[in-house]
Amino acid sequence: MQWRALVLGLVLLRLGLHGVLWLVFGLGPSMGFYQRFPLSFGFQRLRGSDGPASPASGPAGRPGTPGGPSGPSWLQPQVPGAAAGRRRAPRRPGPDVCGPGHWGYVLGGRGRGRDEYEKRYSGAFPPQLRAQMRDLARGMFVFGYDNYMAHAFPEDELNPIHCRGRGPDRGDPSNLNINDVLGNYSLTLVDALDTLAIMGNSSEFQKAVKLVINTVSFDKDSTVQVFEATIRVLGSLLSAHRIITDSKQPFGDMTIKDYDNELLHMAHDLAVRLLPAFENTKTGIPYPRVNLKTGVPPDSNNETCTAGAGSLLVEFGILSRLLGDSTFEWVARRAVKALWNLRSNDTGLLGNVVNIQTGHWVGKQSGLGAGLDSFYEYLLKSYILFGEKEDLEMFNAAYKSIQNYLRRGREACNEGEGDPPLYVNVNMFSGQLMNTWIDSLQAFFPGLQVLIGDVEDAICLHAFYYAIWKRYGALPERYNWQLQAPDVFFYPLRPELVESTYLLYQATRNPFYLHVGMDILQSLEKHTKVKCGYATLHHVIDKSTEDRMESFFLSETCKYLYLTTLLLVLLASLLVAGRGGVPARWPRGPTTGSCGRRGLPHRAVRPVGSAAESLAGILPGSRGLFDEENPVHKSGTRYMFTTEGHIISVDEHLRESPWKEFFSEEGGQDQVGKSGHRPRPHELKVINSSSNCNRVPDERRYSLPLKSVYMRQIDQMVGLI
Questions:
Q1: Which of 74, 308, 525, 704 could form a disulfide with 227 if both were Cys (CB 3.0 to 4.6 A apart)?
Q2: Which helix (DSSP H) or strand (DSSP E) does residue 665 occupy?
Q3: Is 530 helix (H, G, I), strand (E, B) or coil?
Q4: Catalytic residue among 115, 194, 228, 262
Q5: φ and ψ at residue 438, rounded to 5 degrees
Q6: Taking a C-beta distance cutoff of 8 angstroms, is the pair 598, 585 a contact?
Q7: DSSP H helix total and E strand total for the chain
């Protein structure tokens, strides 16, 4: 009997030792980092000698086919019932969720050496290096702006290779890639106004405003896209007007002598010229294009994308409330509701292209990139600005459908087995996978997840896009995750990844994201800087360039590299920044037509209590990725960025709506649930918030945000290693 007891004791001792090592040395859940040991206790399913492996997809597979012959689990069809059960409600943290175990503070990392990821990314970011990066970001803007003014103004854009200006393509009206955007109204100058103010250049800001007032006119025979004119031009005019008339003048003296609301009048003039797009449509969804002189062209297309038609409410709503005229907000809100009521009864998803006369879905793809991105962004931003609860209700319902049908991969970002989370393109009616590519506009979505408190998921998705950036030094317009290769090769200097990077830095305060920002800055300097500015990459592999510098490079990409707003997603406030401060950008390229660009809100929602309460406060404090002393961060004013990155102060004046009851009466059918259910106040909470912590502990700031094993897994899945 004694020998039996001895054997039993040894077995129990070994099991106990296994359990201790599992819990203490990073093999268990929520540890925040990964420990490498020479010992093996039968846990090889998570990782092999080369890195991570999921149960269904080992690290070794055919070239170009991640995860082996069967491919990644993203290919597997989603089971709506199971997805709904898994993602229906926020995961409730245990009692120690905010303790050292949650944030990866385990024995100070004893028991192993730092791996290559920790050596590169963890630890403090030296102040001297941060100052260098801030100056580099500022210099990038100055170089592009000065060359535009010297070689291109008053034309719309700069051709940075040949040092000359670019306007509408009068010889080829079908060239929508150019004509949708360029209206012969000095677009780059207008779009960059608030960036000048944020960087504190009062003399140039005042000079630029006077130039716009004296030289820009919208009485032009130009046919432009309603969406692009709204987010780039109308939004910038409203932003600059608010900066000039702000009694606090947080950026320095940006006032204009004898200013008589000229920019507001110009915004009104432009919006009136865009209004014909909303006329003579049977659904209330606007035509995609108008001629600024004559209205909707006789041969106008009856098809438009969801983001293009449904991402006008922020700018139109601001204009209405500044003028006291409900017309603009009413038409934009009617379009949003019309699109919302066309969503699938089965999945709750929307398609990406719709016929404005019949309401028939021409494009049935539902995803987070081009054609849909900024639609989701502006549902939430509109609520933040205007306080209309139905906007928040629509957003929460949309986010739930996204989680149920678009999300693939393992349930948790930083624990468990399987492929990392990814959001795929599916059929809006069935939820079935439609293709195996994602586009660069979708890189805004991690920032949106930060805003709603889903930080852990945001960390994983951002890591996937950053891995693609590391491989190519840019983001290809489309990337095929099954083939591990680009489908569309160009990169037009988009801001989406930068935007999500600074939002995640504000949520985690992790220096990893400063390193990411530095990588992006240095890549842009190395691969896109040319004689007179920064050029579009024609091909992300051979780094050949195109002679075009789009206006959003100055209004968004440079701005987001220079600044970041403080989004402590774990506090009871939020700051908004558009997915560029920007939402969906129109797809640009031979394979896609004009459709909305994505724009993402950047702000943080308190995951405790109702979303209405959480979103009611906009956090005044902010920090930059490389400029923490900027007035945006220290003035005490609450700010939000539009989808084009234009800064708007958030105040009670914008929440005053004398026509609110009129909107409610016009709404008719309940806009959220087709069954007529309207969530009660306590139900208005952000869907799928993954953390209820009140702060980000200091311990995690100097650990990797994602365990090394998962970073390595993602790098393998994009062919980086």
A1: 308
A2: helix 660-667
A3: strand
A4: 228
A5: -125, 155
A6: yes
A7: 28, 24
pLDDT of 53 strictly over 80: no
> How crowded is residue 454: how many other Cβ atoms within 10 Å of its Cβ?
27
Q: What does DSSP say about strands 533-534 and 536-537: parallel, antiparallel, or unpaired?
A: unpaired
User: Do 521 and 134 form a contact (C-beta atoms < 8 A)?
Assistant: no
CA–centroid distance for 108 within its chain: 34
Buried b (16+ CB within 10 A) or exposed e, 331-347: bbbbbbbbbbbbbbeeb
Structure tokens at 584: 């969906």
Cα atoms in the 13 Å half-sphere on the side-chain side of 496: 35
Across residues 559-570, what is the average pLDDT? 56
Query: Residue 636 above 70 pLDDT?
Result: no
Determine the Cα–Cα distance for residues 191 and 188; give it in Å rounded to an integer: 5
Active site residue 373: yes
In the set 115, 155, 373, 715, the catalytic residue is 373
Six-digit token string for 598: 């994505």
**From CA 188, how far away is CA 165, in angstroms rounded?**
10
Tell me the average pLDDT of the chain: 78
Predicted TM-score (pTM) of the model is 0.79
d(C-alpha 532, C-alpha 546), whole Å: 13
Specify the pLDDT at position 36. Answer: 30
Instruction: Find the helix or strand (DSSP H, E) in which 560 lies.
Output: helix 558-562
The C-alpha R_g of the chain, in whole angstroms, comes to 25
Give how far the C-alpha of residue 156 lies from the chain's centroid of Cα atoms, to the nearest Å.
25
Instruction: Specify the pLDDT at position 161.
Output: 98
Q: How far apart are CA 364 and CA 687, in angstroms?
A: 25
Amino acid at 13: L
Q: Where residue 595 falls among pLDDT bands split at 50, 70, 90? A: low
The Cα angle at residue 85 between residues 82 and 88, in degrees rounded to 5 = 135
DSSP string, 283-338: SSPPPSEEETTTBS-TT--SEEEHHHHHS-HHHHHHHHHHHT-THHHHHHHHHHHH
Q: By mean pLDDT, which of 30-39, 318-327, 359-368, 520-529 is the weakest?
A: 30-39
- How far separated are the first and last CA of the chain, in Å rounded? 55
HEC assignment per residue over 507-522: HHCCCHHHHHHHHHHH
Q: How many CB atoms lie within 10 A of CB 42?
A: 6
Q: How many Cα atoms sit within 13 Å of 495 on the Cβ side? A: 38
Q: From CA 338, how far away is CA 671, in angstroms rounded?
A: 9
108-122, 418-432, 606-620: range with highest mean pLDDT: 418-432
Are the C-beta atoms of residues 463 and 401 closer than 8 Å to each other?
A: no
Q: Give, as one character, the DSSP assignment of residue 556.
A: I
Say yes or no to pLDDT of 50 above 50. Answer: no
Main-chain phi, psi angles of 202, to 5 degrees: -65, -40
Listed residue (456, 455, 477) closest to 465, CA to CA? 477
For the CA atoms of 271, 316, 646, 356, the dihedral, rounded to the nearest 10 degrees, stands at -90
| 477 labelled catalytic | yes
Q: Which residues, listed in sequence order, are joined to residue 354 by a DSSP beta bridge?
A: 304, 361
Which residues have C-beta within 8 Å of that of residue 64, sequence separation ≥ 6?
A: 483, 484, 485, 719
Residue 667 in this model has a pLDDT that exceeds 70: no
Q: Which of 496, 547, 627, 715 is catalytic?
A: 496
Dihedrals phi, psi of 305, to nearest 5 degrees: -95, 160
Q: State both tokens at 397.
A: 């319902």
Q: Indicate if the pLDDT at residue 643 is higher than 80.
A: yes
